[in-house]
Amino acid sequence: MEFEEFYKGPRGIAVKILNRIERTDSYLDKLLDVELKSDELNDLDKRFLTELTHGVVRWKTRLDFVIEQFCKNKFAMQDPNIRNAMRVALYQILFLSKIPHAAAVNEAVEFVKKIRGQKAANLVNAVLRNIIRNLNKLPTPDHETDPVQYLSIMYSHPSWMVKRWVERYGLYETEQLLSANNERPTIVVRANSLKTTADELVKLFEERGIRNTRSKYVENFIKVGHLSKIYNLDLFEMGYFSVQDESSGLVVKLLDPKPGEIVIDLCSAPGGKTTFIGELMKNQGKIIAVDKYEHRLNLVKQSCERLGVENVEFIPKDALEVDVEPADKVLVDAPCSGLGVIQKKPDIKWQRELSDIRNLAKTQIELLEKASKLVKNGGVIVYSTCTIEPEENIEVVKEFLSRHPEFKIEDARNYLPSDIVNEEGCMETYPHKHDMDGGFAVRLIKVG
Question: Which residue range or ranges hold the SAM-dependent MTase RsmB/NOP-type domain (predicted)?
Answer without folding.
Answer: 177-447
